[in-house]
Design goal:
The structure holds two protein chains of two kinds.
Chain A: H1 3-10, H2 12-34, H3 39-52, H4 54-79, H5 87-105, H6 111-130, H7 132-140, H8 144-164, H9 199-213, H10 217-227, H11 229-234, H12 240-248, H13 252-264, H14 275-286, H15 290-314, H16 321-357
Helix pairs in contact in A: 2-16, 3-4, 3-15, 4-9, 4-12, 4-13, 4-14, 4-15, 5-6, 5-8, 5-13, 5-14, 6-13, 7-8, 9-15, 14-15, 14-16, 15-16
Chain B: H1 3-17, H2 19-33, H3 41-59, H4 61-85, H5 90-112, H6 131-134, H7 140-144, H8 148-166, H9 168-178, H10 180-185, H11 190-215, H12 228-238, H13 243-265, H14 272-297, H15 299-305
The chains are: A mainly alpha, B mainly alpha.
Chain lengths: ~350, ~325
């Protein structure tokens, strides 16, 4: 008689987590139906838009590439308990620096020199922009997340200034953008139908490297810092170093180089496009696991690219359903994680209580 | 333009621009006194903005204001339930609500005004004429034309100050933020006060968002709050989490923002992008200076009341 309720109670965490996910889906479906869309048509349209043909599929993968790259860095920071959204500014500055390098090298450089130099410039740009935030946190106790939210606007101003003046393409008057990158500095495209650059292979390799790193002692100590800073100090980690390293490894600068060299092949004002928040979302969804990050990046990116398909298929549901779904996805993930964690703590507590009451 | 005229225009702009930051910041003070932090503030403001326009469409400016508040309250409730009851990390919940709000505002506006239909603007805030103060040099014209929402924000500042510092509710909010376990032993439920503070923060953010279109163009455009919510987060810390300090911080930002708007229409000798960056730069610099001073004064106390780096785990985990 009591078997079912006990079973339910014991699995309360996973059940609540599942409930959150179902509720999240329900909200999205209600929004689609409320705007006069047919649910089947919307789902079909989403799939076509995200994966339907070579072009759409590569578009999804191409958008997922910088997301995965940024999320790797963010997940390292998350390990140390630092929630960072600074990728946006880092990506912009990385893209600026690598564009400058590409334009300076010109059309006569060898790709074997131009591509690595561009990548290094991107990383340096990203790091330079990443440095002040943890510095301010350590020195003055300024919330790192607040610093980067404001610093983002400075990076945008810098970008618009450069695109209006020194980096502006003299050939076009219409929109502020840099001249096309010289050929040796452009990332080659993969020989598939659609458009996808070789950067995705680089990101796959980095994911592999991240998987290896996540099993090292250093990664473990960083995780310890996130939950028990005092214990981490005894393992040789002072409070300053994790915050610094966690933010510096953020790979957003490299993503900036890839967006310029591989996707747009020039510097455009829209180069960053909300990657700060999206990268964090992917890192949370991927739970710090490189394979999870790769999957989460594809799903997250597919929600964006598929949204156009939803609008075409239903005729009435706006494409903004993509962003709405991304937000709901992150919210349900955060709730589900919390539910699982709470139930784990409760379980540990009951076990501890039991062992205490049993006489030795 | 003579120097006096110039600064008169800049100050008038600053006063007209600071209302949304002050209002959103007030809600954030309530939340931060309980130890929270609302990264979703920008998304809440955007939803408030779209509901402000929709409401004003139906029944005029004040219906719009009410609709904005209600929309904000709902998002605040969502945030409170997720963070205080379900114990999800408040920063990640905030980012999720920020994404959700940004998407939802565009979604609603596009759904109700499909592409191709003519965009109707709604009636904006009722003009307020105060001929008596208009005569004051430099600051007078700005004060006289600062708009209804500016004076509304001042009233809310005084009300919030009364509630925060002179009621049992306000003191209990602070007790929850200062030391949760002590509050608990005094019979104060941290969960309930955190939930309440999040709902209040949402309502203020929704109202702040509604004032953005209703004080300017009378229609919605994606991302129209332009970071005012994030600025409010910084300004709250600059103002030491007090309603009156908040006004000073908000004026600092909107003063430079007003200068940036002026730089777009006439040459001020330097690149216009520099003026656009200046409000954020000034806010950042003051944020660092102020935090440093607070840091020196009492590091231990601050550590206990507000953890500087939010952990991704729920607070119950430790």
């Amino acid at each position: 008689m009591t078997a079912l309720p006990t079973w339910l109670h014991r699995r309360r965490g996973p059940l609540i987590a599942a409930l959150y996910v179902v509720a999240g889906f329900a909200v999205v479906f209600v929004l689609v139906v409320a705007t006069g869309g047919d649910l089947g048509a919307a789902l079909g349209g989403w799939f076509t838009g995200a994966f339907g043909d070579g072009y759409n599929l590569t578009q999804t993968l191409s958008n997922a590439t910088p997301l995965a790259l940024v999320a790797i860095g963010v997940s390292v920071a998350l390990r140390a308990g630092v929630v960072t959204v600074g990728a946006e500014g880092q990506l912009i500055v990385g893209a600026i620096l690598s564009t400058v390098v590409a334009l300076l090298l010109g059309p006569d450089a060898s790709p074997a020199v131009a591509l690595p130099l561009g990548a290094v410039a991107g990383v340096i740009g990203g790091m330079l922009w990443a440095l002040p935030a943890p510095g301010a946190q350590i020195r003055w106790d300024v919330k790192e997340i607040l610093f980067t939210l404001l610093a983002h606007y400075l990076a945008v101003s810098l970008l618009t200034y450069l695109l209006r003046t020194v980096l502006r393409d003299p050939e076009t008057n219409a929109s502020p953008q840099s001249p096309p990158l010289p050929l040796p500095s452009q990332l080659p495209q993969l020989p598939v139908s659609g458009r996808i650059h070789v950067g995705i292979v680089i990101v796959a390799l980095i994911l592999l490297g991240a998987w290896w790193w996540s099993r090292t002692r250093q990664a473990f100590v960083l995780e310890v810092y996130g939950s028990r800073p005092v214990l981490a100090a005894r393992l040789g980690l002072t409070p300053r170093s994790p915050v610094l390293t966690a933010l510096l490894v953020s790979a957003a600068g490299l993503a900036g180089w890839m967006q310029g060299a591989g996707v747009t092949q020039r510097l455009e004002p829209s180069v960053s496009g909300g990657i700060g928040f999206a990268g964090l979302a992917v890192a949370v969804l991927g739970r710090g696991n490189p394979l999870g990050i790769a999957l989460a990046a594809i799903v997250y990116s597919a929600l964006g690219t598929g949204a156009a398909g939803v609008q075409i298929a239903t005729g009435t549901t706006p494409t903004a359903i993509g962003t709405v779904t991304q937000g709901i996805l992150l919210l349900t993930a955060a709730l589900a994680l919390a539910a699982l964690q709470l139930s784990r703590i409760e379980k540990a507590d009951t076990i501890a209580a039991k062992t205490e009451t049993v006489p030795a | 333009m003579s120097p006096v005229e110039f600064w008169t225009v800049v100050l008038a702009g600053a006063l007209a621009l600071c209302a949304p930051i002050v209002i959103a910041g007030l809600g954030e003070i309530f939340l931060e006194r309980t130890g929270g932090f609302n990264v979703g503030i920008e998304g809440m403001m955007l939803v408030g903005a779209v509901f402000g326009v929709l409401g004003a469409h139906v029944g005029g400016v004040w219906v719009g204001v009410l609709a904005g508040i209600l929309a904000g309250l709902v998002l605040g409730l969502l945030m409170g339930v997720a963070s205080a009851i379900a114990k999800a990390d408040i920063v990640i919940v905030g980012i999720a609500i920020g994404l959700l709000g940004a998407g939802l505002s565009v979604f609603l506006f596009q759904a109700l005004n499909p592409a191709g239909s003519t965009n109707q603007t709604v009636q904006t805030q009722p003009p307020l004429h105060l001929p008596l103060i208009e005569g004051i040099p430099v600051i007078g014209p700005g004060l006289a034309h600062a708009g209804t929402f500016f004076y509304l924000s001042l009233v809310l500042v005084v009300l919030s100050w009364l509630v925060l510092d002179h009621t049992r509710f306000g003191l209990r909010l602070r007790a929850v933020g200062d030391d949760e376990s002590v509050a608990k032993t005094r019979g104060i439920s941290p969960t309930r006060f955190r939930l309440g503070a999040a709902v209040i923060a949402g309502g203020f953010a929704g109202l702040a968002g509604a004032t953005v279109p209703l004080a300017s163009i009378g229609t919605f455009s994606p991302g129209m709050t332009g970071g005012a919510g994030f600025v409010a987060l910084a300004v709250v810390i600059i103002g030491r989490r007090t309603p009156f300090g908040l006004i000073a911080g908000a004026l600092l930002f909107s003063f430079f923002n007003s200068l940036a708007l002026l730089a777009q229409t006439q040459s001020l000798g330097l690149p216009v992008e520099l003026f656009q960056a200046l409000p954020y730069l000034a806010t950042l610099v003051v944020l660092c200076v102020v935090s440093r001073r607070v840091w020196r004064r009492g590091r231990v106390v601050r550590r206990a009341s507000t953890s500087p780096t939010p952990s991704p785990e729920p607070e119950g985990a430790r």
